[in-house]
Every structure is written in C-alpha cells, then in structure tokens.
Design a protein that fits this description.
Elements (H helix, E strand, L loop, with lengths): L2 E5 L5 E5 L4 H10 L7 E4 L5 H12 L3 E6 L2 E5 L7 E2 L1 H4 L7 H10 L1 E5 L12 H9 L3 E5 L2 E5 L7 E3 L5 H11 L5 E5 L5 H12 L3 E3 L5 E5 L8 E3 L4 H13 L3 E5 L7 H9 L3 E6 L4 E6 L9 E2 L11 H8 L6 E5 L9 H7 L3 E5 L2 E5 L8 E3 L3 H13 L3 E5 L2 H6 L3 H7 L3 E5 L2
Parallel strand pairs: 2-15, 3-14, 6-7, 10-11, 18-19, 22-23
Antiparallel strand pairs: 1-23, 1-24, 3-5, 4-5, 7-9, 8-9, 11-13, 12-13, 15-17, 16-17, 19-21, 20-21
Bound molecules: ligand EPZ.
Length: 423
C-alpha cells in the first residue's frame, strides 16, 4: 500500500493549476451513453474514479479512445450490456448515474447499490422515486436496483433534499422522456450545471440548471459532441486551505471564482487574504496568509453554502486557529468526522458532539502516522501534515488517488516536502 511522507512546516509558495472537476466528469461520462454518436470529453482529471467509471462503460461495450492526456472519446453505439454488477458498483458511488443514463437510452437498467466513501447512510431513495415518477417500474432486491420502462413520460418531481446525485440522475433519464419534466428543490452545484450544459450540447433541452427548479423537455435523440469539463471547485478549495494552513502565498489558476465564494468568504473571515484576478486567458486566485487563521464557525450546506467536501480540510486548518473556539457543523452527512481522531493524535483539540465539532485552536500540530478514512479526510490529513511540526506518514492514500490529480507533484512544485512511497 502506498503512503505519503510529509515533512511539515514549509509555507506553500508559487502557482498551481486546477484539474477538471471529478464530480462533473463522472456523470458526464455516464451521460455520453445517451448519445447516438461518439462524444469527445476534454479536461478530464487523471484520477482513479474517472478510470473506474470509464472501465464500467467499457465493460458494457462502449468503445473508448484516448487521443491525448485529459481527453477521451466515447462511442456508446456498441453498448450491449445494461447492467452494472456488484463488483463494478462497489468501486465507486457515481456508478448510480448509469441508472438514469441506461434507463433513458435503452428503457432498462440494472445497477447494484453503489459503494463510495463511507461518510454516512447515503440512501438512493430519491433517485428511485424519480425514476418511478417518470413512469419506470423499479425494483430494489438483494442490493440490485432494476428499472424498466417502455416509454418514460414527463413528471413534476420534488426532492425532499437538494440531492446532487438524484438531480443529475433524474435529468439524465428525463432528457429522453416524452414531455416536460420539472425537478423542484433541485441541487444547484456547479457540477449539476456542467452536466446540464453537456446534455444541452448533445441536443437536450434543459433550462434552469443552477437554480432550484430545472425544466427538461424530453428529446427522441441526442447527438455526439465535444465538451470541456469545468475546473474542480473542491480541488481549488483544498489548495486555498493548504496555502492558508502553511502561511503560504500561492496563485491558483484555472478556477471559476463564483464557485469558490463560500470558501473565500470563510478564509477572509479568518484573516486570510484572498485576491481574485483575471489574467486575460483565465481567472486566478491568490491566497496570502501571514498568520495563523482566526477561529470561525462553519455550517456545511448545499451550494451556494459551504461545501461538505471541504469541511474536513477546513477542520484541519481551524485546529491551529487563534482567538477562541471554532464550531463546524456538518449538515449533509451524518458520519463525516472520522478525520478528527487523527487530528487529535497530532495534538489538535477537537471534540465531536453529534453533527458539530468544537475546535479549540492549538499553537501547532505535531507530525504523526495518520490514516485517511475517505477521500476528503485524506485531503484533511495532507493539510494537517503540511502544517505540522516534524514528519508525518499519511496512510490509506488510495482514497486520495480517487479524486486528486497529481496532488503530490502539485504540492512539491509549491515547495512542500512530500514523497510518495510505494510499498
Ligand atoms: C455528491 O454525493 C458527491 N458525489 C459528494 O462528493 C458530495 O459530498 C455530495 O454530492 C454533496 O455535495 C458525487 O458527485 C459522485 P447528495 P451524493 O445526494 O450525490 C441525502 C466527494 O468527496 N439523500 O447530494 O451522494 C444524503 O444522504 C463526494 O467528492 C437521501 O436521503 O450526495 C445526504 O444527506 C463524497 N436520499 C443528502 O441527501 C437520496 O436518494 C445530500 O446527498 C439521495 C440523497
């Protein structure tokens, strides 16, 4: 098992370029199944989750070409299997997007209950209810969800929570359904908008993505297209936090500033300088931290609130905050505080009570052997190790490989002392 050895205490300095968005890339790859022609997808991040979802559609019969780094061409016309087996689904949660994509395209889908990061219960009842509302017969037996329909038809759907996965899955199926489907209380995350833009480039008619009401006019056919994925909001946020944690000064290129507003606001509240600029070719953000952060409170919320996916790295940063205690409330997932035990082993003083972590800032963390328990807990471990005094060994980095492209090289280029060891 590979691990990182990080010698902490060095400020990050220099510039870094953000890769394509993981949580947009995964549904977009699945959405290509809906086309009647090949789709060329650009700015794909080179991460394990993208490799796994690509393997899944390849095993189903799609032809994949990789003309150059960060680009794949998917030809779905040769797909002949409509089932995602247990073995495939266990590899990543986003395999559930095949439910909407296959049902929309072929009228039949069989998808095993998905795996993914263990951060709570993570049911898929909204997805299933959405497919039923569109007229599909859905059964959920022995961990396998089977959906079938001769003809999907329009529906007016209300989501109890603004679920990213359910919003996208329903969009996928509805863009091949007859009539106009409305999703109320839809998720508004940047990756939801990116998937809608991709589908529209394929000839779908989706309006309102990015607001809480999405309207989808079903189409009989969707065509091939070329599409470039947006930059990864969470990767950008992770580098913002890492710069703040090490009292660094970095420039982050290839970002969309509006996607980062909640994170920028919280960093500024904690005394970190955040400057947004436009180089002409691109937006960038500069993070300047001259001191430890001041204590702030965070509540995770659906977009445009503070993203749950940055709660864990932010908790690591706030463990060295000055000026009292910080309170971090996790509203999305009920079990997303597994990183706290590791932070405390490094000298942090964090106590968790239900969904809230109370963080009493300490002067510094100390290097330790620490374990990532999921992807973003892994990012939190890296942030903690970068700011700690002494050497840390970060284990379970296969979680980090799922969602961060070349994080070790990117951090080293910023001056971090980080080494990957393959055992
Ligand atoms: C997506 O997960 C992301 N995953 C997660 O990214 C992210 O943390 C999450 O959205 C929130 O932004 C992918 O995009 C692949 P949800 P998803 O449905 O779609 C409840 C990362 O680190 N819910 O928006 O699974 C659910 O339990 C990850 O990159 C139901 O009750 O999240 C949660 O409390 C991990 N029933 C809330 O809604 C359902 O059918 C929001 O979950 C669906 C969701």
């Amino acid at each position: 098992m590979a691990y990182y050895v990080i010698n902490g205490g060095r400020p990050l300095n220099g510039s870094v370029t953000i890769s394509g968005s993981k949580n947009a890339a995964l549904p977009i790859i699945c959405a290509s199944v809906l086309a009647g022609e090949p789709c060329r997808i650009e700015n794909l991040p080179d991460i394990d989750d993208v490799r796994r979802i690509t393997e899944i559609i390849e095993m189903m019969g799609a032809k994949i070409e990789r003309p150059c780094d960060g680009v794949i061409v998917i030809d779905p016309r040769t797909i002949e299997k409509y089932a995602v087996t247990n073995e495939m689904a266990a590899k990543l949660r986003a395999s559930y997007y095949m439910l909407g994509a296959l049902l929309g395209r072929y009228g039949y889908a069989e998808v095993a209950q998905p795996g993914g990061c263990a951060i709570g219960q993570r049911p898929i009842d909204y997805h299933i209810n959405g497919m039923r509302a569109l007229g599909a017969t859905v059964q959920n037996r022995g961990g396998i969800v089977t959906a079938s329909s001769d003809k999907l038809t329009e529906a007016d759907i209300y989501l109890d929570m603004a679920s990213v996965g359910a919003t996208i899955n329903i969009m996928l199926a509805a863009c091949r359904a007859e009539g106009r489907t409305v999703i109320n209380n839809a998720a508004q995350e940047p990756h939801v908008v990116d998937v809608a833009n991709f589908l529209n480039t394929m000839g779908a008619s989706i309006r309102g993505a990015g607001t809480n009401v999405i309207r989808i006019e079903g189409r009989k056919n969707l065509h091939g297209c070329t599409y470039a994925i947006i930059p990864d909001q969470i990767e950008a946020g992770t580098f913002m936090i890492a710069a703040a944690a090490t009292q660094g000064n970095i420039i982050i290129n290839n970002i969309i500033p509006t996607h980062l507003e909640a994170i920028s606001a919280k960093l500024m509240e904690s005394g970190i300088e955040v400057i947004t600029g436009d180089s002409g070719a691109d937006f960038y953000m500069q993070i300047i931290a001259n001191d430890r952060p001041r204590a702030v409170n965070i509540k995770t919320l659906p977009y445009p609130g503070f993203p749950t996916d940055l709660q864990q790295p932010m908790t690591a940063l706030l463990s060295i905050a000055t000026g009292g205690s910080s309170f971090v409330t996790e509203n999305l997932f009920e079990d997303r505080f597994n990183h706290v035990r590791e932070l405390n082993r490094m000298g942090a003083k964090v106590t968790v009570n239900g969904r809230t972590a109370a963080i009493q800032g300490v002067d510094r963390l100390y290097g330790a052997e620490i374990y990532a328990s999921d992807l973003r807990a892994g990012a939190a471990m890296i942030v903690a190790a970068l700011m700690a005094e002494g050497v840390s060994v970060v284990r379970n980095i296969h979680y980090i490989d799922r969602g961060y492209e070349n994080i070790e090289q990117k951090l080293r280029a910023l001056g971090a002392d980080i080494k990957r060891v393959e055992e």
